[in-house]
Amino acid sequence: MHLFHGLINSYGVFTACSHVPQTTVRGVADSSLTPLLEDIADISVDSEVSLAQLTTLHVGAQPRLTVRCTTPQAVVDTVTRLDAAGVPLLILGGGSNLLVADDEPLDLVVVRIECAEVSLDPHSGVLRAQAGAVWDDVVDTAVAAGLGGIECLSGIPGSAGATPVQNVGAYGVEIADVLLRVELLDRATGQVSWVPASDLDLAYRYSNLKFTSRGVVLAIELQLTPEGLSAPLRFGELARRLEAQGPGERRPVAAVRQAVLELRQAKGMVLIPGDHDTWSAGSFFTNPVVDPQHASDIQDKVRRLRGDEDAERMPQFPAGENQLKLSAAWLIDRAGFAKGYPGEGAPARLSTRHTLALTNRGSAHTADIVALARTIRDGVKTEFGVVLEPEPIWLGVHI
């Protein structure tokens, strides 16, 4: 079984860190682990919860234990002790970027990060958030204080600590644009230190924390702008909605946040508990990066099949030297997978609002979502010669 040791995105309710005077236990705890945890402050131990209850795809088996940590020190103490004992861990913010096997119990301990304090300096624009803070609440706090730079990242599900792990981005902005540093627990040494963003090798949906056991993010620090204006509007759909007059225009942060939320809600990309169109991991595939000749070949094929007008609308953006980034959602649609595919009655379907979201319609198992992901990937490869890479972390299953 493949185990991921990084920090996964989370959904949840924004709360300040609470201080639990001693370890609390729900259910019958694993007796072999109890001695390792019993004197750690600010944790609670749960032996009953499954990953289906902690992930936004609502699938996943039960781990040995789930340890909820409400302070950074509790995270440090829990992780270092379990690491020293050789216990496999899943560090979890809440599971919005995670697809977990559900066919048998998981031989691991979930360490869920729930510390959520946020502080900022409205004059300098520096904002600091603990890793368990719900990301959209961090954005809301910044916008309310008139700080610009992350308003385009509104509505993205997840925890603050997860944002640098995969360099979260949307609507022309990435966390790399504003990240100063992260507070990191080095799992090899047990040391805690602030690491500059320049040490993380941040790139498109990537950092050197992703897919590794290098460390656990405890907090992030961002440099925002204090004049109440957004980051330059670079994304066409958002700029059009705000009726921007030219490229790079800036608008009041509150207006941009509202526009982004409206766009995301229209695509089913904002979690609503009773709406199965939002039971997803967000964008399931990353946008592929290809060379210009491959992009031209794809455009020519679309031209033959669908005409000049559709071919000329093919999204493609510069992505470094001799590289272009294409739209995964656009390719999925042109490969014949419409919104809602494969149709009513299927336990796992494409969202009826956005072809990039694979959704659990309420009764799906992990195998259903995996089968749908493979069908989409293979169909796009057959049609266009492009291999779509999944964005969520796969735990115990493989595409």
Automatic annotation (TrEMBL):
SUPFAM superfamilies: FAD-binding/transporter-associated domain-like, Uridine diphospho-N-Acetylenolpyruvylglucosamine reductase, MurB, C-terminal domain. It comes from the Bacteria. It holds the Pfam family MurB_C. GO terms for molecular function: FAD binding; UDP-N-acetylmuramate dehydrogenase activity. Its EC number is 1.3.1.98. Pathway: Cell wall biogenesis; peptidoglycan biosynthesis. Its main location: cytoplasm. Residues 59-227 form the FAD-binding PCMH-type domain. Keywords: Cell cycle, Cell division, Cell shape, Cell wall biogenesis/degradation, Cytoplasm, FAD, Flavoprotein, NADP, Oxidoreductase, Peptidoglycan synthesis. It catalyses: UDP-N-acetyl-alpha-D-muramate + NADP(+) = UDP-N-acetyl-3-O-(1-carboxyvinyl)-alpha-D-glucosamine + NADPH + H(+). The active site is at R205, S283 (proton donor), E391. GO terms for cellular component: cytosol. Its cofactor is FAD. It is found in: Cytoplasm. NCBIfam families: murB (TIGR00179), PRK13903.1 (NF010478). This is UDP-N-acetylenolpyruvoylglucosamine reductase. It comes from Corynebacterium poyangense. The lineage of its organism: Bacteria, Bacillati, Actinomycetota, Actinomycetes, Mycobacteriales.
